[in-house]
Amino acid sequence: xxxxxxxxxxxxxxxxxxxxxxxxxxxxxxxxxxxxxxxxxxxxxxxxxxxxxxxxxxxxxxxxxxxxxxxxxx
Length: 74
Ligand SMILES: [Zn+2]
Hints:
The chain is mainly alpha-helical. Helix content is about 20%, strand content about 0%. It has a domain at about 25-65.
């Protein structure tokens, strides 16, 4: 699995590894303007962010499921 030197995929949720469907990243990838990302209107709890690996913080978005606390623990 991911070593700590592996690059972070900005399209994948660092918590569950699923697509985070981030509009900002979609816009960067496709060059097509996207509506403001859902994540801009969500408060990510400090507790949730504490689970994000250091190298993924500010690099990859948490997905909507994890932000809502609905993802099953591994
Ligand atoms: Zn997730």
